[in-house]
Amino acid sequence: MRILALNSSPRSGSQSKTELMLNHLAVGMRDVEADVEVVCLREKTIKNCIGCFTCLTKTPGKCIHKDDMTKELLHKWLESDIVVYATPLYNYAVNATLKAFIERTLPSFEPFFEIHNGRMFHPLRHKNPGVVVLSVAGMPDEEHFSALSAHVNYFSATPGRKLLAEIYRPAAEIMTSPFLQEKSNDILDATKQAGRELVQSMKISPETMARITQP
Question: In this structure, what is the dihedral angle of CA atoms 40, 107, 162, 150, given to the nearest 10 degrees?
């Protein structure tokens, strides 16, 4: 199984709780023989979508921009079985770096519309990878992720897309506190287990999720 894990955090090392959680998820995935590539988007050049629709009409499937998204990342995304969108929670949503990446997947759409269950949408030009969303926030309550969750569930409801799991870790800023080491270790161990479960069954068990999101 091929997995593309996208880290959109501007931080690195011990400062980034997004990176901490994502790295443990990736370890679990590799434990069960998945091919996991972690990409730090802060190191890539991804221009903003300009809404020209060239990728839908004049050059179907190809963006007008010549940057890392066109040269490298879109191809890797299309070739993946699973993509992990890892982001710190910014203003109750994904950060701008990840949003730019998601918007630049527009070349995977067809230019025309279809209707399914009363909803109009662009059908997909290519197979899209299954989606895992991982986000961390400093606030201690899970309610802060509700807007992000609503967005990713609506976005993933297009036929041909599949949301496999949402992993939300509140109070993440204190996970590296020496006073909470035992609890943090259990959370990170559960995150590894979630990686193993995703590769083996394309879902995360309620028991594992409860350990990840424990108070």
Answer: 80
Q: How far apart are CA 95 and CA 9, in angstroms?
A: 8
Q: Could you read off the pLDDT of 69-85 as tens digits, one per residue?
A: 999 999 999 999 999 99
Q: Which two tokens stand for residue 98?
A: 């990840």
Structure tokens, 130: 């299954």
Tell me the per-residue pLDDT of 160-174, one tens digit each, with 9 for 90 and over: 999 999 999 999 999
Element (H, E) at 155: helix 146-155
* pTM of the predicted model over 0.70: yes
Please list, residue by residue across 17-53, b when 16 or more beta carbons sit within 10 angstroms of its beta carbon and e when fewer do.
Answer: bbbbbbbbbbebbbeeebebebbbbeebebeebeeee
Q: How far apart are CA 28 and CA 32, in angstroms?
A: 7
